[in-house]
Design goal:
Ribosomal Protein S5, domain 2; 21 strands; alpha+beta; globular
């Protein structure tokens, strides 16, 4: 077990949204214990705030989006992965636009932003959700599962009919050091032959070689090359970490994902919450909290996310 963390002081960055192509400014600010990750969206008509919770999931294509009270924020997964990856539990995320800035297409810039703010340990224990029984979802050739384990682990596989990818598998033992060194800098990727089709559907309007690894028929277009030989599967691990953040608390279990994506990741989160006999909430000093007691916690704490959400 560990204590909760927030950042020392407010920090900001700006950029364009990967899908909207619109400029947006983002500010991270310290938040008190048990706040969780709280988005604050400034827009015409006022300010809307809502948590990084599966209850606020909005069905979108090629990214994870949250929506509440008329406010929509797209592509939250890379920022959420950065926050979870370096164990930031409580933070305010302020935005003046409808999408998280793409930065370089990875979580690396957000990790640097967090590190520049500094990290503060708070006087509150961080609960964990510990998996007791396996949960699996399979759709066609895609699969995701979580099984009991003594520590958080991820095994992720991807398969594409492209000479630069083919089949890649990555084993990730979750830790702050490993996230920063092995996962955070892996960038999102796209196939050149599909880019125009994405534009026609109103997607990837802000995509460029500055924030996306673009694959031609037999190689990559980016002159800078790859950051890792298996950067593609590492980015899928990054996406999975970000999407699992919608659970509201860290999870202790072994995640296995094969050719999965955002829809399957978030469906797993919903399925976990709909099967409270498959997990237990571990609070301070390894004391288990029965699932039925989750609902008695104050509504503002991140544990409130652990309420069964309707399937998308």
């Amino acid at each position: 077990m560990r204590q909760q963390h927030t950042i020392n002081h407010s920090v900001s960055c700006s950029g364009i949204g990967l899908h909207t192509g619109q400029s947006v400014s983002l500010t991270l600010s310290p938040a008190p214990p048990d706040t969780g990750i709280l988005f604050i969206r400034h827009q015409r008509g006022g300010t809307v705030s809502f948590g990084a919770s599966i209850r606020n999931l909005m069905s979108t294509e090629l990214c994870t989006a949250l929506s509440a009270n008329g406010a929509l924020i797209k592509t939250v997964e890379h920022l959420l992965a950065a926050l979870v990856g370096v164990e930031i539990d409580n933070v305010y995320v302020e935005l003046d636009g409808g999408e998280i800035p793409a930065m370089d297409g990875s979580a690396g810039a957000f990790v640097q932003l967090i590190r520049s703010a500094g990290i503060t340990q708070q006087e509150r224990w961080q609960p964990y959700l510990k998996i007791l029984r396996p949960i699996e979802i399979a759709e066609g050739g895609r699969r995701i599962a979580i099984t009991p384990a003594t520590t958080p682990r991820i095994t992720c596989s991807v398969q594409y009919n492209h000479p630069m990818i083919q089949r890649q598998t990555y084993e990730y033992d979750c830790s702050v050091a490993s996230f920063e060194q092995d996962i955070a800098d892996a960038r999102t990727f796209a196939f050149l032959k599909e880019v125009e089709a994405l534009w026609a559907r109103g997607l990837a309007k802000g995509g460029s070689l500055e924030n996306t690894v673009v694959l031609s028929e037999d190689g990559i277009v980016n002159e800078s090359g790859l950051r890792f030989a298996d950067e593609f599967v590492r980015h899928k691990v990054l996406d999975l970490i970000g999407d699992m953040a919608l659970l509201g608390v860290p999870v202790i279990g072994h995640l296995t994902a094969d050719r999965s994506g955002h829809a399957l990741h978030t469906k797993l989160v919903q399925t976990i919450l709909s099967q409270p006999d498959s997990w237990v909430l571990v609070d301070s000093q390894e004391a288990p909290v029965a699932p039925q007691h989750v609902h008695s916690r104050p509504a503002h704490v991140p544990i409130a996310a652990l309420q069964a959400a309707p399937a998308a």
